[in-house]
Amino acid sequence: MRTSTLKKLTAATAVLLASTATPALAQEVESSGITISGNAAVTSDYRFRGLSFSDGDIAIQGGIDVAHESGFYIGTWGSSIEDSPTFGHTELDLYAGWSGDVTDGLTLDVGLLYYFYPNGEGGVAGPSDYFEPYASVSTTLGPVELTTGIAYAWSQSSLGNSDNVYIYTGVSGGIPDTPITLNANIGINEGSLGNPAGVVGVDDYVDWSLSADWALTENLTATVAYTDTDAPSINNFTDSAFVFTLGVAF
Question: Where is the chain membrane-spanning (predicted)?
Fold first, then answer.
C-alpha cells in the first residue's frame, strides 16, 4: 500500500508507478478480514522524487502488503540501487499506516515509513537509515483522481541532523474504452534530502513526471514515464529521463 508520495512515491516515477498499484489478485483471509497482496517490477531506472537511485541502470523491485478491513496496513518494498559504501546495493522500505474514507469521496492515507539500507556502511554523519511520516488525501473529480500529500523527515543523524519536507500533487485518469491510464505528478522537496553528500548542490528543487500505464493483462502493467527536475543537471542522477517499467501485481 506504499503510495506514490513515497517512494519511491513516490512519487518516484517507476515506484510511484509500479509498486504502488493496487494488486488485481489478492489473497483474503475471510475469517480475519485480512488481505495479502504483492507486486514485482523491473524498471529501466529507479527514480525517486526525480533523482536516480540506480545511476540510470535497470533496477529490480518488489513488495508485499498486509491490510485489514479496518484500514490499517503494514508492508515492505525493496529495490536494487547503485552500489555505494554509504547505502550498499539494496534499499528496503518498511511502513505501516491507515487508509480509509474520512468523508464521502475523500480518502485519507497516513503512516510511517522507514528507509533501510541493509548493505550500507553509513557515512561520516552516521547511519544511512531514516524515518519519514507521510499523509495524503485523494478524491475523484469527474473522470480523474486527484491526490495531494506530504512526507516529513525530522532531523536525524543520517540526514545530517537536518529535516526534510516533500509536498506533491498528482492526477490520474483512464482513457475511455482503452487499457491506458495517464498520470501527471509534481513535487517540491526542501531540506537535507535535496542535497545528499552535496551532490545535488541545492536544498530545494522541483520534480515532475508524465506517464502512461498500459494494462496488458488483469495484473500485468507496462509504464512509460518522462521525469525531470529543476536541480542542477547531473547525468544519470538529476537529468531528465524516459523510464520504462513492467510490473506485475498478485
Answer: none
The Cα–Cα gap between 3 and 209 comes to 16
Grid cell at residue 83? 552500489
What is the pLDDT confidence band of residue 150, given thresholds at 50, 70 and 90? very high
d(CA 242, CA 17): 13
Question: What pLDDT does residue 179 have?
Answer: 97
Per the domain annotation, does 5 fall within a domain? no
At 17, is the pLDDT very low, low, confident or very high (cuts 50, 70, 90)? very low
Instruction: Please check whether residue 99 lies inside any domain of the structure.
Output: yes
Percent of the chain scoring above 70 in pLDDT = 82
For residue 50, the one-letter residue type is G
182 sits in which H/E element: strand 180-191
- Return the C-alpha torsion angle 154, 118, 75, 49, nearest 10: 50
Question: Domain of 208?
Answer: 15-249
State how far the Cα of 5 lies from the Cα of 189, in Å rounded to an integer. Answer: 12
Cα gap 243→14, rounded to integer Å:
7
CATH code of the domain in which 244 resides:
2.40.160.40
Q: By C-alpha distance, which of 145, 136, 128 is closest to 166? A: 136
Query: 46, 80 in Cβ contact below 8 A?
Result: yes
Q: How much is the pTM?
A: 0.85
